[in-house]
């Protein structure tokens, strides 16, 4: 018995140590980028371990003062908020509709959605389609194409099918229609999976820049990811700007190309991190419940 207890204790300690090392390996690179972006670039070049060197916010100030950054942040936020709301509503409504046996060709429609997970027409047909729909240099390009996503529909449909059928039957007896049932019953009972989908959709909307790259040339519609991508290709020129200011005797700190890259990474990453704390309690529950059945 004693040997068994010692073995169990050793196994538990080993698990904690191993998982702690894995957690540290996952978190530390991001933490390193964060402390580097807050450090004096000239001191950070000597190596960082746990704390910033020469703590300052000049890196962020300099980058946020670049042209088009403010307007691009507004576009990215609007894209993320509007796109996420539209995706969640359309996918949830579509998933609810294909659970109804009265829907003609229900199985064909659902299988057609599943097929989209495996087949993709490619970049050129996508570009021509978006252009023919008048979405070039149009804000709707950011929100309309992602309104229905096959993977989200599958998760939500599976979740809805696990809800008690008696709830809908009792609502219909009271005179409620399908849309009323969807809005007042199904939608609120599906909040765990909806929160999960909202996280996926928000992260995807915030990080996507390819549609911006191929179809948007209007500076007023550029997202922050695209603007920072363009500046990322000009890191040396941005760093040279601070050297010129120092030569003119203006109050500024020299920014190195590496500091520009680190700070840009944090600027893009930090905003989306605020989504998780509000939806974390729904995330795992909704994903597991929505994936029980195929």
Order of helical and strand elements? HHHHHHHHHHHHHHH
Structural Rg: 25 Å
Number of H- or I-type helical stretches: 15
> Given the helix and strand composition, which structural class is it?
mainly alpha
Seen as an oligomer or otherwise, the chain set is single chain
The count of DSSP E runs of length 2 or more, i.e. the number of strands, is 0
**Shape, principal axes of CA atoms:** flat
Mean pLDDT: 81
Commentary on this structure:
It is built from 15 helices and no strands. With 294 residues, it is an all-alpha fold. The C terminus is likely disordered. It is a multi-pass membrane protein. This is Carbohydrate ABC transporter permease. It is found in: Cell membrane.
Characteristics:
294 residues; mainly alpha
Task: Write a brief structural summary.
The protein is an all-alpha fold and 294 residues long. It has helices spanning 2-37, 41-44, 58-64, 69-97, 106-115, 123-132, 150-161, 165-173, 178-189, 191-207, 210-215, 224-232, 235-247, 257-273, 275-289.
Please render the helix and strand layout as text.
Elements: H1 2-37, H2 41-44, H3 58-64, H4 69-97, H5 106-115, H6 123-132, H7 150-161, H8 165-173, H9 178-189, H10 191-207, H11 210-215, H12 224-232, H13 235-247, H14 257-273, H15 275-289
């Amino acid at each position: 018995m004693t040997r068994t207890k010692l073995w169990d204790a050793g196994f538990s300690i080993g698990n904690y140590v191993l998982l702690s090392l894995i957690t540290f390996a996952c978190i530390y690179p991001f933490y390193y980028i964060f402390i580097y972006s807050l450090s004096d670039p000239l001191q950070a070049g000597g190596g960082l371990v746990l704390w910033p060197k020469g703590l300052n916010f000049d890196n962020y100030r300099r980058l946020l003062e670049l042209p088009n950054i403010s307007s691009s942040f507004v576009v990215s936020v609007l894209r993320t908020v509007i796109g996420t709301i539209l995706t969640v509503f359309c996918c949830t409504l579509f998933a609810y509709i294909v659970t109804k046996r009265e829907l003609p060709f229900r199985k064909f429609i659902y299988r057609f959605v599943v097929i989209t997970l495996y087949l993709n027409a490619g970049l050129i047909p996508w570009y021509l389609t978006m252009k023919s729909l008048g979405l070039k240099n149009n804000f709707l390009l950011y929100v309309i194409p992602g309104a229905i996503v096959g993977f989200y529909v599958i998760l939500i449909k599976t979740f809805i099918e696990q809800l008690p059928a008696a709830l809908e039957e009792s609502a219909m007896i009271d005179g409620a229609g399908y849309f009323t049932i969807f809005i007042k019953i199904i939608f609120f009972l599906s909040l765990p999976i909806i929160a999960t989908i909202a996280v996926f959709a928000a992260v995807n909307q915030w990080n996507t820049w390819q549609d911006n790259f191929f179809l948007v040339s209007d500076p007023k519609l550029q997202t922050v990811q695209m603007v920072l991508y363009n500046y990322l290709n000009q890191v040396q020129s941005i760093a040279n700007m601070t050297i010129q200011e120092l030569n003119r005797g203006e109050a500024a700190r020299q920014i190195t190309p590496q500091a520009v890259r680190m700070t840009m990474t944090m600027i893009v990453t930090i905003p989306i991190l605020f989504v998780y704390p509000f939806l974390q309690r729904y995330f795992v529950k909704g994903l597991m419940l929505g994936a029980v059945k195929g």
